[in-house]
Design a protein that fits this description.
The complex is a heterodimer of chains A (304) and B (167). Chain A folds into four domains: 9-44, no CATH class; 51-96; 102-233, Jelly Rolls (Sandwich); 234-304, Phage tail protein beta-alpha-beta fold (3-Layer(bab) Sandwich). Chain A contains six helices and 16 strands. Chain A has helices at residues 9-14, 20-28, 32-44, 52-96, 243-254, 278-288; strands at residues 101-104, 111-114, 120-123, 128-131, 141-151, 157-162, 165-179, 182-196, 203-205, 209-214, 220-223, 235-242, 257-259, 268-274, 293-296, 299-302. Chain B folds into two domains: 1-94, RNA polymerase sigma factor, region 2, helix turn helix motif (Rna Polymerase Sigma Factor, Chain: A, Orthogonal Bundle); 95-167, Arc Repressor Mutant, subunit A. Chain B contains seven helices and no strands. The chains are: A alpha+beta (304), B mainly alpha (167).
Chain lengths: 304, 167
Amino acid sequence: MTDFKDDIFLSRWLNDELTAEELKRFEASEDYTLYCKIIEGTEKLQAPTYNLENAFASLKKAREASKTREIRLKKWTRVSVAASVILFLGFFAYFNLFSTTTYSSNYGEQLAFHLPDGSKVILNSKSTATFSKYNWENDRNITLNGEAFFDVEKGNTFTVNTSQGNVTVLGTEFNVNALDGFFNVTCYEGKVKVDDFKNTKTTYLTPSLNYTNTQTTKPKVININNSVPEWLEKRSVFRSIPIKYVFDALEKQYQLHFEYKFFNDTVLFTGSFPNNNKHIALETVLKSVNLKYTIQGNRIILED
Amino acid sequence: MCNEKVFQTFFNNHGTLLRNFLYYKFGSLTEVEDIVQDAFIKLWNNCKKVTPETAKSYLFTIAINQSKSVLRHNSVKLKHQKEVKHINNTTTNQSPEFILEEKEFQTKLENAISSLPERQREVFLLNRIEKKTYNEIAELSGVSVKAIEKLMHKALLKLRTEITNIP
């Protein structure tokens, strides 16, 4: 094979850039004819003709197709972005504006928390309060199940909704106890308005007044002389209350369950029991009404 | 460039060259015309950014980049096919009497050209068939003239080796 002095020798040959001497020597080499034949043969080759007209037509078509796809995609993207924003805002609104905050206390437990306006709420045992934390300005309502004491900041009105009735307040301290068929509201400071669902008459309570309505007694307002509910001082006090609500309070306080068949539980009870000693509490309540009982775990079985 | 008439004229002026350029590069037409079409569509879609002066090099750059990714994908395919081809060759080469007629030489030459590395084939055929100067080819594929000259030289050496079967 021919040795070439440089690596572009054949390129220069094709471009007629060889010197006369170089050309002469190359023409004399054994491969020269072969190279010439290669060049000649290649010159005969031709790329298949390219139909420009057809090609342009199909190009235009392909471009239109890709364009509409792009536009559709863009439209779809816009819609999806809008949808996700709405969805996001929706979730935000749902979780913040319409969501509610719930506080619950367990058996024998008391739970204190603040409302968004700074008012203080203390839940007695086994009670639940629900309100909307993030929409408090527009929705000043608390749903209460059980008993709670409210110490309201001045100038803030709100309503406590219970299954038994509503209590509306303006800068005051008051206690609400709402059980099934039992509604008890005490005002300690300021003024509260009581709308009992079972009493068409609206009642206004001023300090030291207590409103009670049960299924078996008529609504009545009595005078008391405490500055805070007794349960905040670890005592439960009852004034002419059907004894079944006393049992209910004991159950909540000590996680008990009363069982009886023929006992008349509408007997009125006046007295108190301590919230920190189960046996003394049971003794005090049940001895006072001459009841014998047995304790089986959490069950209190009353003898007829 | 965005005007359809202007663009069509541009296409008519450069379409064939680009298509042949890629044809020489690939050695077959299969993926070439799709690449040509895509390159022109991309150019058209970006017509606002391109002036008539820069359009040609923009077009070739797009096409070359696209070819590279296609070729990278193809190289795997070719490797497998080569083995199969090799077996076939041994059977046809069994006739020892072999006169180098012009027709046969032409077939040999075409086979040799298709066995060239793509860059060598592309440069060699652009120069020999399209009659493009080294300068023009260098401009189209964005490399130096010196590189084109080297590729030409190598292509010829390779063709000679392939045809004579003598290293």
